[in-house]
Amino acid sequence: MPDLQNFSITNLSATNVNMPRFRIECQVCDSQTGEVLVDLTGASAIVFPHDMPALFTTTEERREFVRDLAHVLVRKKAGLE
Hints:
The protein is of the alpha+beta class. It has helices at 52-55, 59-77, and strands spanning 22-24, 26-29, 36-40, 46-48. The protein has a two-stranded antiparallel ribbon. Strands 2-3 form a two-stranded antiparallel ribbon.
């Protein structure tokens, strides 16, 4: 995998962007027993991006999320995915 050089993330002012919404549903299960540990279906599903403020409440949590997402976006735009 190529290395990223001069990588940075800069905070910008908030803006209204027309963003599609997605419902993300799953159950987190114990791989050994199959027991459902967390049920994220129905009313507990994650609605992206609507639920972002509740999931990432601190500046550091938001930056970490953006950092992870940024790597996916860079690889996609560079044609590596």
